[in-house]
Amino acid sequence: MRHWPTFADVCRLESSPLTEYQRCVTVLGEDGGEFGEVFAAWNRRRFPSLASIIQGPLHELPQIVFTLRAVQQPASIPMSLASLNIITSTSESFSGSLMHIFFRIGSISENFATVRKMYEVINLQNRILDGTIPYPQNQQALQMGMSIEFRNVCFQYPESNAYALKNISFKIGQGQLCVILGENGSGKSTILKLIARLYEPQEGEILIDGQDIKTLKLADLRQAMAVLFQDYTHFPLSIKENIALGDPGHSDDLDRIKQAAKLGGASELIERLGEGYNTYLDRPVRDYYSGLPEGTTNLFGRPVSFGRVRAMGGMKINESTTLSGGQMQRIALSRTFMRSLVSETSVGLLLFDEPSASLDPTAEHGILSLYTDGSADLFERLRLLRGQKTMIFSSHRFGSLTRHADKILCMHDSVIVEEGSHDELIKGGGEYAKLWNLQAQAFL
């Protein structure tokens, strides 16, 4: 069987349709002319549906009855014409009803197929095998943070021949603040994903509190972490519910949610919205209002805001709220604070992957600070409010957090090239000092 080029090979989404068409012709070659013939042949091989098989005889039934009646009793042809009209109307009505039934059956069949796919996904075997040892075995020790050790870890992403991490070894003690620095693609995010067990290393081992990470129960391990990755997700819920997902056990505690939003720099943003914390980022089900008297503030237990509805065919509909990338990141950061800074006893490790990547300088450096003097930036808040938890923070930008880090891992080309404190690495004059001076020159 001929190997067809993949869609990714053919379609590169060029700006010019003509250029893309020429690219398709070049890549497909002679196969391009045969594609239409293959598709037509596939259509011819498809079996007709039961509805189409029945519809044909039903359509011809009146003519068949009229012909038989005329042959058997020629004198009754006028009566046969009347019968023909009745039979035609009846058969068309019956045929339409039958087609509608088959259409509904087909729709139900498609829905069942979708449900079956959902169950198939649920039944998929997890590639990350679960451990058997509960974690933590000492809840009080968890409050002092988690220790992490990488021993000669190598990792390649699926379907990639390049190493994302090459022979990585380091150790982070309980309660330490570790900053991982490096250029984009150097492997910073990969380290955090391996700690969260989103992937398994091909070589080496990872130890949590001296135990092989593979032996620990996966749910327990992740319950003891608070993570914020770059590819965070927002759900079709209210802002309050999106933040509360960081600690679902306190989803009804509005004071805690507001505290987390303040720490994440999102409180002022939320308060400016028409519905505040009840604002929906993306409404799964829109609210339509018709004939409600002005002044109605509550309907079926849900707040009604006439300030954020628009007319639509005599109805009123609540719209979703669109936020910028930086604003969405503040909501995600607030969710992480909800989990990490409220759940003091259940979380021992904080993982932050470029938490300020989409934030503007004001959001990052003080205007949205928790403190009244506005002096503490996002990095300083993370440092002061983490308590005794272990924190790992990845970034390609230098901030005040690096000066207070117990350990800095400087990465380049998937390996750790330097390790130490800020002062030690500056004195060393290596990769860290080069990146520090390069970024400092932009402000001189």
Automatic annotation (TrEMBL):
One Pfam family it belongs to: ABC_tran
InterPro entries: AAA+_ATPase, ABC_transporter-like_ATP-bd, ABC_transporter-like_CS, P-loop_NTPase, Type_1_exporter
Domain of life: Eukaryota
Domain ABC transporter residues, every copy: 148-438
Molecular functions per Gene Ontology: ATP binding; ATP hydrolysis activity; ATPase-coupled lipid transmembrane transporter activity
Assigned keywords, A-Z: ATP-binding, Hydrolase, Nucleotide-binding
PANTHER family: ATP-BINDING CASSETTE SUB-FAMILY B, HAEMOLYSIN SECRETION ATP-BINDING PROTEIN
Protein name (record): P-loop containing nucleoside triphosphate hydrolase protein
Lineage: Eukaryota, Fungi, Dikarya, Basidiomycota, Agaricomycotina
